[in-house]
Write a structure and sequence with these properties.
Elements lengths: L7 E5 L11 H11 L2 E5 L14 E4 L4 H6 L5 E3 L11 H4 L4 E3 L2 H20 L2 H9 L5 H6 L11 E5 L3 H12 L3 E5 L13 E3 L4 H7 L2 E4 L13 H4 L7 E4 L8 H9 L5 E4 L19 E3 L10 H17 L15
Helix pairs in contact: 4-7
């Protein structure tokens, strides 16, 4: 246990899904283990009163006006992998360190990606529909739309090889898939399980080879509307698109059009431009689209993983050692 340290940590998360809100034990355990002042809130209302003397924040977001008040702030930790919500000039230009939780979410999101690949290949959603109708759908499963497929030997194209992408590559290659990837810095080489790496300018080559295209990249100006009509047209007609990155990276209207006209075989989306997805969204009506309601990162182990990462980083912070999962604020990831 650490000796008492005159340092203030503010934990503030307000989310409609209970799982995303920090449990009471989280702050209590930090107080006991590190002997620091911890303020834990489940609402941003009145947060300004806690900001002038805060040194560390664990939060989903922070507005530029709030940041200006937090004169003693030295480190922000985001419980998300995405950090575009912090990318305002005042924070980018400051000495405040920003870390994210990509290590927390990577393993479980990668599992979800693999589940979606299997569901698409084996037509699990169609089987569920037949079950609901009490129909023995063997002929329909085979004859309607794409045939059922094997995973082994298929090509998986990864857009992004961060914490999620690297784990997907390991899992997919272990199942006998050929994995290729696009990464910004080709000179960094091939992650484990990846056969070939392309630059962003060579994205078309990856799309033309892939049976499954997985978007797992950070949301940046360069990746906004990345999968638009022109990029979807580069995909094979029997290929599938999977997005576990951010909703705005796929142009939903263009995807709907590609699915209706059978220019690609199908898709699975876990993230959307608007969340919750509105009831009147045309995406709900697409037979070849599998929708999961942003559940790729959900797990009963979520807060244990958060505590393991944050407490390790807090230990490093207090002993002035380099932190894990530091975000390059200039790049946005």
């Amino acid at each position: 246990m650490f000796k008492f340290t005159h340092m203030k940590i503010v934990i503030v998360i307000q989310h409609r899904l209970g799982l995303w809100n920090a449990p009471a034990w989280f702050g209590e355990r930090l107080r006991h283990e590190f002997r620091v002042e911890v303020v834990q809130r489940n609402s941003y209302e009145g947060i300004e009163a806690d900001l002038p003397d805060v040194e560390v924040m664990f939060t989903l977001s922070l507005r530029s006006q709030q940041f200006e008040v937090a004169k003693r702030l030295r480190w922000i930790h985001a419980p998300t992998a995405a950090v575009h919500q912090f990318m305002f000039p005042e924070l980018i230009d400051s000495d405040v360190v920003l870390t994210n939780s990509t290590e927390v979410h990577g393993p479980v999101v990668a599992e979800h990606v693999m589940a979606l690949i299997f569901a698409l290949a084996k037509k699990i959603p169609q089987a569920v529909l037949f079950q609901q109708k009490r129909l023995w759908g063997q002929e329909g499963m085979w004859n309607e739309g794409q045939h059922l497929k094997e995973i082994g030997g298929a090509t998986l194209g990864l857009i992004g090889v961060g914490s999620i992408g690297r784990r997907v590559a390991q899992m997919a290659s272990g199942l006998g898939m050929r994995v290729i990837a696009v990464r910004e810095h080709v000179e960094k080489g091939r992650p484990e399980g990846v056969e070939a790496v392309f630059s962003p300018a060579q994205l078309g080559q990856l799309l033309g080879q892939s049976d499954y295209v997985v978007v797992a990249a950070p949301l940046l100006p360069a990746t906004h509307r990345l999968m638009d009509a022109s990029r979807l047209a580069m995909m094979k007609p029997d290929a599938f698109l999977i997005n576990v990155g951010r909703g705005p990276q796929v142009e939903e209207a263009a995807l709907a059009d590609a699915l209706r006209s059978h220019r690609i075989a199908g898709a699975a989306l876990d993230v959307f431009e608007r969340e919750p997805l509105p009831p009147d969204s045309p995406l709900w009506e697409l037979d070849t689209l599998l929708i999961t309601p942003h559940t790729a990162g959900l797990t009963e182990k979520l807060w244990d993983r958060h505590y393991a990462l944050f407490s390790d980083n807090l230990r490093r912070y207090l002993s002035r050692q380099p932190l894990r999962s530091v975000v390059d604020k200039r790049k946005g990831y």
